[in-house]
């Protein structure tokens, strides 16, 4: 469960840049509509693998300005960036919590005074506290 949660958080932090829709056809990645001509230019920018990140960013800003979408595009970028930062913070918190989690898990496994059901219960409780903290944030 924990590895899946961490992989999900990693995916969120890396999936936001750059968005390449692939060969399936031009579809807007934005939560607002754009004209067909703008979609065609957007598709050309996003499918150019030779652009550096800075060139990509510059071309996207020029594209948004050209089609009068600068405000909407900037708001979209801010939202994506905020989500990325939040996901990175959650991942950092999860990674910081892992050593303590495994230390407590090792203590349970090495405790010779526990019965098997007691050890199972303690492991479940430990897992629930870690998962609970990560999902509520």
UniProtKB/TrEMBL annotation:
Q: Which Pfam families match?
A: ANIS5_cation-bd
InterPro entries reported in the protein's UniProt record: ANIS5_cation-bd (IPR003677), SXP/RAL-2_related (IPR052823)
Locate the transmembrane regions by residue number. Answer: none
Signal peptide (UniProt feature, chain positions): 1-15
Where is the SXP/RAL-2 family protein Ani s 5-like cation-binding domain positioned along the sequence?
Answer: 37-129
Write down what this protein is called: SXP/RAL-2 family protein Ani s 5-like cation-binding domain-containing protein
Keywords for the protein's UniProt record, in alphabetical order: Signal
